[in-house]
Each structure stands twice: as C-alpha cells, then as structure tokens.
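anyone seen this seq b4? input:
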Amino acid sequence: MGFWRSHNSTTTAERINEFQINSASYGEVVPEVLGTTRQSGNVIYYDDFTAHEHKSTQRTGKGGGSKHTNITYTYSVACAIGLCEGPISGIGKVWIDKEIFTYPQSEIQLTLFDGRLGQQPWPYVVSKHPEKALPYSGLAYMAGVVDLGERGSLPNYNFEVKGKLLDTGDGIDVNPADYIVHILKGVGIDASQIEGLDNYRRYCKAADILISTPPNEGAKKAQAIINEIAEITNAILFWSNDRLKIVPLADESIRDWDPHLQVQYDLTADDLIPGSDGQLVIYKRKDTSECYNQATVEFLNRANNYEKETVSFEVVADVQKNGMRPASTKQAHYLYTKARAQYYAEQLAMKRLYSRNQYTFHLSWEFCRLEPGDIVTLTDDICQLNKQIVIITAVSEAADGQLEITAEGKPPGTYAPAKYNVHENERPFIDYNIPAPSVNDVAIFQTVGDVGGNQVFVGVNAPDNWGGCSVWLSDDNQRYRQIGEITQQARMGRMKYGFSQTNDFCNIVLNRGVLQNGTHIDAERGNTLCWVGGEALSYETVEMHTDNWYTLKGLVRGQYGTKAISHNANERFIRVDEAIFRASYRPEDVGKKIYLKFSSRNMFGTNEQGLDEVQAYEYTITPYYIPEVNELALYTKYYKIGDGVLSYDVVATFTAPDLNTFDTAEAWYREGAGEWKYGGNGNGQIVISGCELGHTYEVKVKVKDSHGNYSQGITKSILVQMKSDVPNTPQGFSVTFGSVAQFNWLEVRNADIDYYELRTNLNPGQSDGLIGRSNNTTYAGMLTERQGKIYLYAHNPSKGYGAPANVEYNVPVPKAPTTFIARAGFGSVGVLTNAIPANCKGMNVYINETVYFSATNAVTFPLNVGIYRVRVAFVDIFGEGAKTAEQPVAILEKIPKELLDTESLGLDKMDKAIESMKNDVSAVKKVSDGFESRLTDLANGTTKSISDMNKHIESRFTQLSDGFDARITEALGEIDGDKLIARINLSKSGTRIDGKLFHVTSKTIFDANVIAKGMIQANAVTAENIDTPSLSAICATIGTLRTRTTGARVEIEDNLISAYDEENNVRVKLGCW
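predicted toks r here
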C-alpha cells in the first residue's frame, strides 16, 4: 500500500541573519559642500533588518498527489546615510549601483533631510524607536526603509549634492572669491580684512572660473585650500599691513574686467643695492628642458557623471620650434566643466613657458610700498637689462635689514608709466668685517633610534651678530676635519622647575629663540618634539611669560619608545628641530671619545674664527636606548621526526615595541651557564628547533633596529616536558575558497599535538569522511559539495582526540559574467569578461562544442577562417557556473597590415623617384603647339613624359632598377588620387592598378584568395542580385540560422530544422539529431 503513498518536499533558501554595512566609519570628518558635487555618504543609522518569507507550492506526481514547497527570502532595512554639513539646497542625481535616478523618485527609497539647524528627527524612528530618535541638527542626510531584495547589504549609493553658495556663481558652481571668504570666516577672518576681493570676484566671473568642493574631501588646512584655489584661478595671495590681499595675475582684458598694468617704479643702478659680490641683480633662467609647452589638467566632468578626465593645451608656436615638452598632469578637482579646465590648462602652459626668467635684487626701505603682484622695470648694464618689465612674486626682509625682492619676467606689452619717482640718496656705510662672537652654550646629546639612530645631535647658542659656524671633529684633539655647518641657533635652555612623570605641563627658560603653539595632533605626531633628560616629549600649547620663561601644556610623554620619568629643575631642555646639527657615526664608534670645535662667523658670514681661538668640547659616544619586546611567553611544540624519534620546538611569542625603526627581534638560548646560541629571528614569534625532552633552556629575546643596534634583551626559562592532556578545541577555524579550499586555525597549546584532522563527520580516526591531516595550522584541499560542515580535531599521541571545532560553508553557483566580449582577429578569436570572482579559479570558454579553460579573464584562441559560437562560464573548485548567451564571431580572410604598408612604401618610393627626375637635366625636350615631351636618363632609372598644355593631361612612363610605373593624370605636376585617371605600378613590394574604371574583358584566374579593403561583406550581395539556374554546386557548413533570437522562431542547423513557440519550447523537429 505504501507504494502509492504521496510524497511532499520543501526547499528553503539560506536565510541571512545579519545586515552588512558597505560604508560606516566612526569619527569621519563631516564635509561641507560648497557648490555641487558627488558624495558617497556614510551610514549613520540602521535598524529593523527584516527577512520577508516568500512561499510557493507546486503539485507534482501522478494526479498531483505530491507537492513541492519552495521558500525564499527578501530583506529590508531602515537606514540613514549622512552626506555633509547643512543646510544644503537639494539633491540632483542619485546613483544606485549602476543605475541613475533624479531625486525624488520612488526607486531611490530615501528622503532628504537638508540639515537645517533645529530640524526634526526622522518620523520613522520617532514612531518605531523613540529612544533612538536623533534630529542630527545641522547634518544633511538621506533616510528611508530600503528594499534590499535577496541580498543582505545596501546597494552602492552616490548622491549629487547641491550645497551652499550656489547664488554666488551660475546656480551650480561657486565664485572662488566667495569660496575663499567662506573658508576664512571659518578661521575668524572677516571679508573686511581682505583687500582686492571685489576685483578678484569680477575677474573670476568674467573668466567664467567657477568651482565646487571636490567629492568626499577630507579635512584640510584652510591655507592649503586657499592656495590651491589661487593657483587654479591664476591669482596670488599674501599678507600685508595685517590684511590679506588677492591679486589676479592675468594680463589680458576679459569682458568687462581689465588687468592691473601700472608700473610702480623704474629701478636703476641708483636704486638697487649691490650684494657682497657687487651684483645688482641676480638673474636665473630655467633650463630649456624645464620650459614645458604642454599642460595637462585633470578635472571632474559633471556631464560624464563626475568621472575624471583630462584636457591639454600646447603652445603651438613653441612646439613647432622646440618640439613637444609636456609637463606632468595637474590635478584640479575643484573644476567640473571641460571649458574651465581648458582655460586653466591654457593659463598654466603660458605661465610655465614664458615665466622662465627670475630676478632677485635688494632695495632699501624707501620702497616698502612694493608688494607681490606689483610691476616694476629693471635697468642693469651688467645683466643687459633695459627697462625690463617684471612682476614681483615675493618681498622679504634680508638678514641685513634690506628688502629682498623676487620677481618674474613679463612679456612686452602696453604698461602705464612709473607711478613713483625716486631721487638719489646717500647710503650709510656698512662694516662687513666686524669680529665674530664665539658660541656660548653647546649641547651634545644622543636620542633614541626613531629620532636619530646612529647620530650625535649638536645644538649651539651664541650672542648677537652671530652668523653661523663651522663644525670640526677630532679623535685626538690634535687633528681636526670639518664635518658640516650650523646656520641657526638652537631653541634650548633649562627647566625652571622640576616635574613628575605624570605631569602634562612643564616650565622652561630658553636661551634664544621663541616657542610657538602647536595642536593636539602636532603633539601626538611629534611635530613639537623636545628632549629632556633622556625622555622624548611633545607639547600642544605654549604660555609665554617674561624673561624667556615658557609654560608648555598638553604634554605627550614618553614618545618614540622612551619612558615618562620625573625631571629636576635646571635639567637641559632642547627643542629637536631643523636647527639641530646631526653627525652620523658607525656602530663600531660606540664607546669612543670625540672632540668638537665650532668656529663662528659674523652676521655677514665673514671673518670666521681660527681653530686656535675656539674651545674644544669633549663627548663619548654611547649606545642609545632601544625598548624591549612586551608580553614575552615561551611554550613547547611537539612533533615526530620519524622511526619513533620525538623532537620539540621552543616557541617564543611576544609583542614588538612601538618603534618606527624596528627591524626584527632575535632569540638566543643556552642551557645552564653555557654559551649563548642563535635561535632565529622574527616579528611576534620565533621558533627554536631541536630542543630535547627534560632539558631546561634559558631564552633571551633582543630587539634589533634598522640601524643595526640591539636592546639589552629580556630573558625567560622553560623546561621541555611532555604535555599529555586532552587537546582543547581548536580556535579560529575558518575556510576560504579559490583554486582550492584553504583552511586556517589557531594552534592548540595545552597538549602535545602530533596532527590535526579535518573531517566531514564526527568519526575521528576513520577513513570515511576524512578530508586530510596537517601538522601545522593550515590545510589546502578540495571539497565536492557546495554546502556543508567541516570538523577539525586536534590529536595527542597518548590522549587521542579532543572536542572538534566546526565551520559551515555555503558556496553559491558562480553567476554568468556580466561583461562578455568576443571579437575576431586575424586567424583568432579574443574573449574578454569582467574580472574573475575571488572564489573562482578561472573560466570555461565554449567555442562551438569545444571547451577551453583559462585562468585569466582575457584570452585569445588561434582558429581557422569560419563562423563560431562563443559562450563563457566562470568555474570554481566545485564546478561550472551559469553560461552567458552565445555570441557569433566570424573570422575572415584579411591581408596583414604589414603587407599593405609594404605596398604603400613601394608607391611612395616610385612617387619620390618621379618627383626627383622632374628636376633633372633632360636629354631631349620638344615643345610644339602646347605639347611637351621629355626624356630623362639617370644611372638608376629612366622617365619619359608627354604633356598636353591645352587639355592639362599628362602621360608618364617611369622605369627603375626595381620597378615600373605608368600613369595618366588630368592635372600637370600632380599625382594624387583625386587627379589620377589611370596608373599601373610594378615593384618588388607588390603590384597595384589604380584608375577611374577597371574593365577585364577576358577570363581571369586568381590562384589565391581574392582580398581587398572593400571586399564583399555581409549584406553586400542581396538575393535579388543573384541569378543562377541551380545551387547544386553550393555546399557549406551553415552553423545556426535563426529568424529570431528568442520566442517563436525557426532555427536551421546542419541536418536539422527546429520550430519553437513563444515559451521557447521545441514544437517541431525535422532532420537528424
């Protein structure tokens, strides 16, 4: 009776239990969008990840007595994606994976909260989770309940954000002047403190230079942002008289904006102050190789979905003269249109090419009104300058109190005459030979490896009028050699009060110089590094008192591997910066005594002291401090060598010190008081092999840095003995898939493990279900099922197996390639797909019925002429995935391009020979009634031409040693294809016949294939143009012919005709199959 019983079955899809977040980073900078740009956003909230069950039932079996139920799941989640600081003007396009929508559309599934101050929380969270309802005041974000389909993660969202200041530009981008004002307001500088702002705004508007914030821009200094905008807009910014000034450098009128072309001074030898060598003007000219005549700019094209593109501009006249000299690509992600990027590239190319001359000169304080951007003229007979127009780029105060001016040359043009006239004045005499003062305080010290390595640090202080010193070194205080120079006084002094190892502030008194404030980041990164009594520390802020007394606050103690210790009053304090001189030494120099002398120069860099006039400073080089490893632990590892012989490893595990110059850690071991033996090196773990049971080993681990120096080392002992406990369950068991299944786990240490066993069942030691065994913590092998559970056992020789660890896996069938291209080459078919997925080992390529495997996503197959059907499927270790649709590929007969090029060379050679012969001396020449005949005979050829001057027709016969050419043209002196009537060319490179009409009257036989550039292609000959009484002689392999690709259609294959209905079911078959 049970034979007829109905049978019910159920298939349930794997249910995803966790929501996967694509991008959610804690502590991300909230960007501020000025203008319009593309932002990816950051997930700031998600909840209510819900699985929705979908059940379908199908009756099966005879009479429908059985049924099959299929259960699948789709998912949804409530989430919010933070965009930027609000309020914003709105959202434009929205990119969801590869699809593009315009907000608002229902497919987006998200609603905009524009980030106004005091905005209300998301109503969904208020109703569902009121305890989590945050308003996110001032933050623009998108929120909604998103249908995830069958996946457990959000799609890839990108948003076109319409930010602030849109009304300052064209409604999309921002005027750079207002952009800069907005940035400066954020650092406390009002627009009233900016001079030239209105002129700069009009210039940017006239030149149509409008900008927007780059996408996903992180935190940047205001100075860096403003300097980048100034460079893009061809302007210069500088501080003068406690005001920020902006000057556009453009020198051509643009619409209603005119440049500043007023000359301020005509400077001559009477105004310029000579240098120590007597020069009035120091002239520098860039090398020709550095004068680039092509500029390339990378920008973000808003019209192309904000993709990166480049535009180039070349100065054609200079390219023709000197050849192309391209500069490296300049990034300008503030620009979003091709026209603006092109304008920037033009300005950049012109500036790089023509601003090649630089002038440096000195002036007195009579000219203190000069500023960057001002125009002056230079006249100097030595440099052969006669009212040379230059624009000032920098004004600084030289060491002698004069004004040092740096300027660049400008091209000739129309400029207004000098605005100011300067009269002669009597200059005071300067004594350049004043005595040099000796240094009065010297600090010689060594720091840790991360700061100095194998270096001795030296800092000096000296009285006023000191202009630097030479540094001299000696091993015996008799013979000295110069090893360098010091040009700055060190910022060093003494501790005013002592402070403990826990204090975050200290008080110091400096000898010279000034300490400036830093930031918390500066202190953490060692940008304000100081050295006090063997401790490296950095400060955050500075409080200044009288008499060079400073209080350093926000100290970060014990940096670069040093330890925070207590310090006493009057200890040496040194600010470690570029003023400190560094002298390198060799490791073998440690322990040696050295002597240093410092011969000073005066403030003008002259009148240097002699070595007999200065004091010698003695110093002994010592090993610098290197921190030890942390958490050193020892354990033993058992294994069999063979034939019952046992061996043990002693494994040292540790944490390497936080040291930038860390190279490795070395282990040394010994028994009792024996000699230390080298046991190996590593980072985190060192294995010492060949240890014996029952022996006690002392192990020392020393840190080695990149300079080759070692720490003192720390020591621990261990007794090698058998561990016969039941093994613990292995931890960290995981599996990944590629060309093989790769298993990994953590080592079991409570017992001696001779091997680990991987199984598909809970029967350890049995061959049935055994995958493999390993004596380390990895295993690579093959699996046969796409879904299953793997068990891992640890085995002890005496106690057997412990409890197993397990891992479940479910590897889906690979999807069909999303990108599939099959192209015919010359005698080959090339196949390209999207990148092979990480869990696949390659792809199968089906060409007709033949299968080829490829480990890469791009492959070429050599094939004969014909038509082929190509499909592709990705392959993993379990088998093949879904196939793509077929693509037909036809390989045609073609002449290789190199043969066509050879033919062209033959024609070119003949043409050049003809033109050359036309200018040679003629042996016979006759002119009568408009006719001209000419015969030219040379050593390597003969040419004869007959010309009709009335009808403008010429015939010509040319014979060379390796070719023959005959032609008729309808225009004298021209041989191009448009004027050619007929031509036959015979040469060793090939034969060519040209003409307006080619008529063959007799039978023609071609031994090889008939091939031409205009060969008969598909659809070139249609059915109405074919007239034959019989097709019986035609026999061909036709492949597959279809009336349609899908749905109701007829397909004709070799020996088979098939008819399909709309559901793609075969209804009729006729033939053999």
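The helical segments are 123-128, 176-186, 197-206, 222-232, 316-322, 338-354, 520-524, 897-918. Residues 187 and 222 are 8 Å apart (CA to CA). kinda curious what u guys think
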